[in-house]
């Protein structure tokens, strides 16, 4: 018999002290299909799992089935131990004794008893909840950065596309509007009206695209959010009453103002309210809408909540709800840009927007804006639920989505239609061979060829593309003392429609394809109004205005512009600095004529 090792008791005592002192959970036990028998567990495991200090070792059973939060996770873990005999940094989500959920990393050796089928496990267990939270936050921030980059790239792309779409849309709208005033049979009229209606819908989509894509220079002031809420709900009051939607407003008193564009904030709120109404009506045929506000002093912000008792937002939809063109509505019922644009507006105001929802339990959209003169404290996406719970004093069920489109813009306002008639294209150049400006200059002279020559002496002969557009049969022929308009537009189809419309309205009309041709026309005489595009080849609208101020200063006050996109561009700054009137493409002819007459009067 070998002599006893005198160091053995000391080694055993050292291992015991190490077992108790190691700052990780140490567990030795048997794991069966359903049971969990503890052989040994250290004190740190008791603390980690939230057990009271005096809890017996045998009661520490971290791998009991009811400790696992994920169905099937325990079976997968035990199978892995039995198959491989070991695991390293195996991640589990377990419930503590107080039902709090923690993330645990397990490194363990295991052996399977052939007699009982039980797995003997010796494991080190580490609480990695804080690390996991940081990883999740980092991943969320990474996805937000990707989303921001995607939005920036998409914004640049759709801005160019939208601008190019505005010209053909303006042409379609213009010709459709003109054709509806003709004597048509009922079937043809329905078709033309359908074209006009759908073109206007496409125009609204383009405007939404541009709102999303551009950083708009807005008019901001000190805004009472509660007043914005009241005004917005007043707009929907009748519609809500007839559709059986009850409204509860819980507006906190004494909240400070925010520095914002009230029209854009109303746009955001109106979109959220209409979306909530549609969700409730689609699901239940009625509903209760709650709008509330409160101040969050910790974040120096005002929070606005729009809550409905509709069907809620499914989990697979929450991750895409702010994406451009994503919509759950039927084809033709939505553009998929409302929430995208709303998100962009809130972000531009230095705020944030997020969704809290559970399927079948309604949805809450939150808009948080900094108080006047303040700036929101940066918080991790995972904290948003806490912001709501702490500030509103209520629990926030469901998952929080902070991702990174305002309802569709209202239909274009219809100005009073002028009673136009169609025109004939066969009479061009039939009245004034040198264009209306030159003709009027001649009339101002002696009434002879010599007088005409004096009106244009020393000047290069103007070469407009279309010198005059004659009115349609039955329309009054413009007199030489009629107002003269010069249309400067490089889009031939649109320029033609505009020219014929002004011809029908009794104007003398010249056309030019760019600024250089316009300057040539001006050498022949005077125009009552000049209508110019901003973007053109050779000489654009801005350069034309500068040339007018230098060479024909009296005409600089008679120019107005039409353009497809000025938001956030040099064109916007030019229009603001120059004070020139302008009209966004696509436009209605009635609006164009109204503004042209205003420019003439001015």
Characterise this structure.
- This protein has 602 residues and is α/β, with parallel strands linked by helices.
- Helix content is 41%, strand content 19%.
- The chain contains 17 helices and 18 strands.
- The chain has helices spanning 8-21, 43-48, 73-84, 129-180, 186-213, 225-242, 262-284, 315-318, 338-348, 384-392, 435-444, 449-456, 492-504, 515-522, 541-551, 570-578, 589-601, and strands at residues 25-31, 36-41, 86-95, 101-112, 119-127, 221-223, 245-251, 258-260, 287-296, 301-308, 352-357, 363-370, 399-401, 484-488, 508-512, 529-533, 559-563, 581-584.
- The chain has a six-stranded mixed sheet, with helices on both faces. A five-stranded antiparallel sheet has the order 2-1-5-4-3. Strands 15-14-16-17-18 form a five-stranded parallel sheet, sandwiched between helices.
- The longest helix has 52 residues, at 129-180.
- The protein is elongated.
């Amino acid at each position: 018999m070998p002599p006893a090792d005198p160091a053995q008791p000391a080694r055993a005592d050292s291992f015991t002290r190490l077992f108790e002192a190691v700052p990780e959970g140490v567990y030795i036990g048997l794991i069966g299909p359903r049971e969990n028998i503890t052989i040994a567990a250290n004190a740190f495991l008791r603390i980690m799992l939230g057990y009271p200090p005096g809890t017996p070792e045998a009661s520490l059973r971290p791998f009991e089935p009811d400790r696992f939060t994920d169905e099937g996770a325990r079976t997968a873990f035990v199978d892995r131990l039995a198959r491989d005999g070991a695991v390293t940094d195996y991640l589990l989500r377990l419930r503590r004794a107080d039902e709090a959920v923690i993330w645990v990393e397990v490194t363990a050796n295991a052996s399977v008893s052939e007699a009982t089928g039980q797995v003997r496990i010796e494991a080190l267990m580490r609480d990695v909840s804080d690390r996991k939270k940081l990883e999740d936050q980092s991943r969320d921030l990474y996805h937000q950065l990707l989303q921001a980059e995607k939005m920036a790239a998409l914004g640049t792309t759709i801005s160019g596309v939208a601008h190019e779409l505005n010209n053909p849309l303006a042409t379609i709208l213009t010709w459709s509007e003109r054709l509806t005033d003709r004597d048509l049979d009922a079937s043809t009229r329905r078709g033309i009206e359908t074209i006009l209606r759908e073109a206007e819908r496409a125009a609204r989509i383009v405007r939404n695209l541009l709102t999303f894509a551009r950083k708009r220079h807005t008019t901001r002031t000190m805004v009472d959010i509660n007043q914005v809420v009241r005004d917005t709900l007043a707009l929907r009051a009748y519609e809500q009453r007839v559709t059986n939607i009850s409204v509860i407003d819980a507006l906190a008193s004494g909240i400070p103002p925010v520095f914002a564009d009230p029209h854009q904030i109303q746009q955001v709120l109106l979109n959220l309210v209409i979306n909530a109404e549609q969700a409730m009506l689609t699901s239940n045929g009625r509903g209760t809408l709650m709008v509330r506000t409160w101040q969050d002093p910790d974040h120096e912000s005002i929070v606005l909540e729009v809550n409905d008792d509709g069907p809620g937002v499914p989990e697979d939809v929450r991750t895409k709800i702010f994406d451009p063109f994503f919509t759950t509505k039927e084809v033709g019922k939505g553009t998929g840009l409302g929430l995208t644009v709303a998100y962009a507006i809130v972000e531009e105001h230095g705020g944030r927007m997020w969704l809290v929802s559970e399927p079948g339990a309604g949805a809450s959209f939150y808009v948080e804006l900094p108080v006047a003169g303040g700036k929101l404290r940066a918080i991790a996406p995972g904290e948003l639920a806490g912001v709501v719970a702490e500030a509103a004093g209520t629990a926030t069920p469901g998952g929080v989505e902070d991702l990174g489109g305002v309802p569709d813009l209202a239909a274009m306002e219809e100005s009073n239609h002028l009673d136009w008639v169609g025109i004939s294209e066969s009479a061009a150049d039939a009245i004034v061979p040198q264009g209306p400006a030159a003709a009027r200059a001649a009339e101002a002279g002696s009434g002879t060829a010599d007088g005409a020559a004096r009106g244009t002496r020393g000047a290069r002969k103007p070469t407009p593309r279309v010198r005059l557009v004659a009115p349609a049969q039955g329309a009054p022929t413009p007199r030489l003392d009629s107002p003269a308009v010069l249309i400067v537009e490089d889009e031939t189809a649109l320029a033609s429609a505009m020219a014929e419309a002004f011809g029908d309205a009794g104007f003398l009309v010249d056309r030019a394809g760019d600024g250089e041709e316009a300057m040539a026309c001006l050498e022949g005489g005077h125009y009552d109004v000049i209508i110019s595009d901003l973007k053109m080849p050779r000489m654009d609208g801005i350069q034309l205005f500068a040339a007018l101020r230098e060479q024909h200063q009296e005409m600089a006050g008679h120019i107005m512009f039409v353009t497809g996109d000025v938001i956030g561009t040099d064109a916007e700054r030019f229009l603001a600095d120059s004070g020139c009137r302008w009209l966004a493409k696509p436009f209605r002819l009635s609006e164009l004529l109204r503004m042209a007459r205003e420019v003439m009067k001015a």
